[in-house]
C-alpha cells in the first residue's frame, strides 16, 4: 500500500478523475460566475464589458443594503433560536426523557423532512387574515385581542418567517446536539453529582463545556444555512410585503433572472460568497482553540 | 523512460481524457445555436397560471374545431405564476428551449427584447401568408405594436378595457349615481364605509390592482401622455404632481376604503369580495366578465353589476372617456419552432378563437368574431360597445417600465396603501429603478 501511495502516478490516477469532475462542476462555474461580475447584459441581448461598474453599483444600491440587513438580522436571530432551542430540546431528551425520548425526537424531527413549500403553505393558512382569519387570528379574537394582518406588514411577516423556520429546523439541531450530549461519559456526570453538582452548576461546569464542540458545529451549520436562506422566504412571503423581507439570495435571483441582469446578479452572489467565507473562516479559527480547557 | 512508466503516463492521460469527455458530454447537450426551425412534436404552451380564459378555449378547440391540427401536434398546456413568467422565459431563451407558444410576461419591454433578438414570429407576414390577417382587430394590432417593439409579434387573445365594476343595488340604495369625478368617488366610498361595506375590493398581494388605481389617477390628473413623459425622461415620478397621485391612492388605504387586510388579499379573494357583496366596487379589466357572468361565482346577480370608467379628476388634463386598454398577457409563437404544422394551428386559432372566447368565456379578444354570438349578457354587450366606440386609450402603470421598476411597483403597492411606505418613497423607488435603466 505504501508503495502505491508513494507513487505520484498512482496518486494522479486515483485523484485525477475526481479532481477533473470537481473542477468541471464546481470550479469552472465559480470562475465563470466571477467573470460575469465584469459584464452587463444577458443571453438574449448579449454581454458587454462593464469594468467595475457592477461593484460600484453594489456599494450604492439601497436594495442591497436592505437585503444585507435582512440577511444578517435573519441569520443572527435564527442561529440563536435554532441553537438555543435545539440545545434545550437535547437537554430535555437526555436528562428528562432519557431512554423514552425516541417518540418525541421523531415527532420534533418530523417537520425537517416536510418540503419547505408545504410548510410555507401551512403557515400561510395558520397566519392568514384574508379573506378569512387563520387559526392564530381566531385565537387572538377569542381572547379579546385585535386580529393582525400577519403577512401584510414587514415586521409581523418577519416574525412569521422566523417562527416557521425555527419550527421547521429545530428538530435537526435537537438531534445533532443530542448526539453530542449522549457522548458525554456517564461516569463524569456521576462523579460530578457525587461531588455535589446539581442542576445549574452541573450544566454550567460539566455539560456545557463538554458539549461545546457539538455546539460549535451547530452554530456553523446554522449560520451557513441561514445566511443563504431562500426557499422558505420565497414560498411564504415572496420576500414581501414589498421588499421588506427580501434576503440577498432572493435579490440575487431576481436581479439575474427576473431583471435579466446576469452581471449584477453575479456580483451580489460574490458578496454572498464572501460573507459565507468570512463566517466560516471566523468560526474555524475559533474552533482551533481547545475550548474544553 | 521505461515501458512501465510510459504505460502509466498513457493510463493517466487516458483517464483524464475520458473523464473530461464524460464531463463535457454531461454538461454539454444541444447548444441550440442553429438558426433553422426545429420541428416540434407537440404544441407546447406556457401560460400564466392566473389566466382562466385562454386555456379552456384552446382545449375546447383541440377537441373540436382544431382536432385535425391537434392530431398532428397535440396541445400541451403548462402554467406558472404570472410573476415568474418573465424569469422563466429568460431562462428558457438562454437554453434555446422556448415553448412553441407562450404568454408574454408582465413587462412589455421583455417581450420587445425577444423580438429584437429574433425569437418571435412576425404575424403580419405569417398571418398574411396564411390568409387570415384580416381576422385580427386593427386596434389590437396597433396596441401590440405600441407595446412590444413596434411589430405585430404577439396575438391578442384578450382585448380589454379597464374600469370600475360596481354593485348597482348598493349605489341605488344610497341614491348614488355613477361617480363622474374623483371627489364623487370618494364621497361614495365614504358612504359605503360608514355602512360597513368595503368600498373597493383590491388585491394587495398582487399589487397591480392598486397601481392601476394610481395610473388611473395620474392619467386623469396629468393627461393621457403622463406616463409616456416619464418614460421619455421629460417628467419624473418624483415630481410633486405624480407624488400627489400616489398620496391620493395611499389615502384610500388610510381611510379604510380598501378593507382591513388589503395587503394579504389575493386576486381571487378580492374578486370574491365583490362578487359576494362584501365590497361595492372592483377596479378590473374586462377579463373579469368571465367570473361576473358566471352565476355560481357571482352571488350578487349578473344583472346587478355595472361598469364605469375611472372618474375624472377635477381640473385635470385627462378625460373620463380615455379607458386604459390592453391585450391582456398576449401569447406568441417562437420563431425557432414555427413550422407549417404550427402555422396550421395558428390559422385555426385565428379563425375561431374570437367567437369561442366570447361565447364560452364572455371575454372579448382581438380576434374578429365572424359569426354573431347570440345571448350575450347585457354587461358584455355594453363592454363590447365601449371597446368599439373608444378611440382614445391609455396604458397601465407598469406598461412602459423596465422589469425592476415593474416588479417593485406591484410588490410595494400594498405598502403604499397600508402606510408602511410613504408616497414620496414609493415614487422615488420607482424613479430610481427607471433611472438605472
From TrEMBL, chain A:
The chain crosses the membrane at residues 12-34, 74-96, 103-123, 157-181, 202-223, 262-284. It is found in: Cell membrane. Pfam families: BPD_transp_1. GO terms for cellular component: plasma membrane. The keyword Cell membrane applies. GO terms for biological process: transmembrane transport. Keywords: Cell membrane, Membrane, Transmembrane, Transmembrane helix, Transport. It is a multi-pass membrane protein. Residues 68-283 form the ABC transmembrane type-1 domain. PROSITE patterns: ABC_TM1. The keyword Transport applies. Its main location: membrane. Belongs to the binding-protein-dependent transport system permease family. This is Sugar ABC transporter permease. It comes from Jiangella aurantiaca.
UniProtKB/TrEMBL annotation, chain B:
Residues 1-25 form the signal peptide. InterPro entries: Bact_solute-bd_prot1, SBP. Transmembrane segments: none annotated. Keywords: Signal, Transport. PROSITE patterns: PROKAR_LIPOPROTEIN. It comes from Jiangella aurantiaca. PANTHER family: ARABINOSE-BINDING PROTEIN-RELATED, OSMOPROTECTIVE COMPOUNDS-BINDING PROTEIN GGTB. This is Extracellular solute-binding protein. Belongs to the bacterial solute-binding protein 1 family.
